[in-house]
Amino acid sequence: MFTPFVVALALSAASSTTTKSASTAVSSAHVSSASTAPSATSDSSLPVPTVPYASDDLNDSYLDQFQNEIPEPIRGTNGAKLLGPQNVALDRENPDFLASPSTDNGAVSNVKWPFSLSHNRVQDGGWGRQQNVHSMPIATAMAGVNMRLKAGGIRELHWHVTAEWAYVLEGSCRISVVNADGQNYDADVYPGDLWYFPAGIPHTIQGLNDVADGCEFLLVFDDGEFSEDSTFSVTDWMAHVPKEVLSKNFKVNASAFDHIPDRQLWMLPSAVPTGTAEGGAVKSPQGVSTFPYSFAASKANSTKVAGGTVKVVDSRTFEISKTIAMAEVSVEVGGIRELHWHPTQPEWSYFMRVSQGNARITVFAASANARTFDYQAGDIGYVPPSFGHYVENIGNTTLKFLEIFNADKYEDISLNQWLALTPPDVVKAHLQLSDDTIGKLQKVKPVVVGSGLL
């Protein structure tokens, strides 16, 4: 079952084999940056602008250029060569920081964090590294963890004060959950699959070996203050309960607890489970959970659009996922995730493995504040609610990334669709677009725009 949004995407793909964003049409037409009186329909009689026209500088990416030469902070006639020390590798990864586009202006908080800069907690059984407000202060609504479990490795029995959403990156793992009604749920998950554990629900994760040596996955929590180092663990709790109380609680001799750990394990090695998740599950008198805690998103079809694909999974398809919604997006070489914004929820983005391209994003924060950021595999992005942005594929391979939201449903506003569904005379009064350009605006969201012109 697909959402109305996904149905609209399919209509968009059918309506046009190639798409061009409104902003591209604007730059090629020397657009005015301020309101003027409504124009006549003829393109030859544009009114005198009240302010100068916006620059026609294309502000192309320097990513490829900087790979073949020493990067310099020069764009056009502006800037000058570096004379002091330089981190060439970082400058090559961030060309729009070193030689920023002329459209950048004012101040925008940092909206990029590479997991490669996060401290990695390495233990016998796997590792985990995190991002929260301490590494990217603007990201107040969500935090992320990148975790790896070897085959048999266990993320110990634990729970959180926040909900946990996961996307399996590689390999496979087994999840086990028990809810407040005493119902349990066990499942095996694979690359592209999801799970969701509501706040306070205890669970565990174990690496399998049927497709790889364990698994690697992305976790997203619905609170930017979340810390993986501050979870509630069964070993930590029981180590801090008097054994006399443990004896009373479980109705066994206190000596039964002589070998419990004296501290939190967090992650531990173990034997690889055999058989199926269902076959290994304990039979609960209360039965199996009526809501599945995992979703086989890898088996759900993506919607093809001009320039890429989109797959949306939110509470309309994964019912228990009440605080996290996702769009899995691919953008072909030279294409862009169109100019858009999300009305009420921030976007937490994750860029996929190395073979999945490079990205450029300009974040518009209103009041002439805009800044451009570059992203590689393993990077996290964050865009606050209503901030306009796009995601451009500036690499040489297909770009794949996740858009993740602290919301039950996915929503976005398309600049192209907004202009197309606004009376043409109003659009002309603002932007002085020609009839031909207005005729090419898309009344159905393009979502992803391919390279080339209409």
UniProtKB/TrEMBL annotation:
Q: What cofactor is this protein dependent on?
A: Mn(2+)
Binding-site residues for Mn(2+) 1, renumbered to this chain: H158, H160, E164, H203
Which keywords annotate this record?
Answer: Manganese, Metal-binding, Signal
Name the domain of life: Eukaryota
Q: How is the cofactor bound?
A: Binds 2 manganese ions per subunit.
Residue ranges annotated for the Cupin type-1 domain, each copy included? 115-258, 294-439
Pfam families the record matches: Cupin_1
| SMART domains in the record | Cupin_1 (SM00835)
Which CDD domains does this one have? cupin_OxDC_C (cd20305), cupin_OxDC_N (cd20304)
Question: Which Gene Ontology BP annotations are present?
Answer: oxalate metabolic process
The entry's active site is: E403
Q: Where does Mn(2+) 2 bind?
A: H340, H342, E347, H389
The UniProt entry's coiled-coil ranges are none
Q: Secretion signal: which residues?
A: 1-21
GO: which molecular function terms?
A: metal ion binding
Check the record and name the PANTHER family matching this protein: OXALATE-BINDING PROTEIN, SLL1358 PROTEIN
Q: What NCBIfam families does the record point to?
A: bicupin_oxalic
The protein's name in its UniProt record = Cupin type-1 domain-containing protein
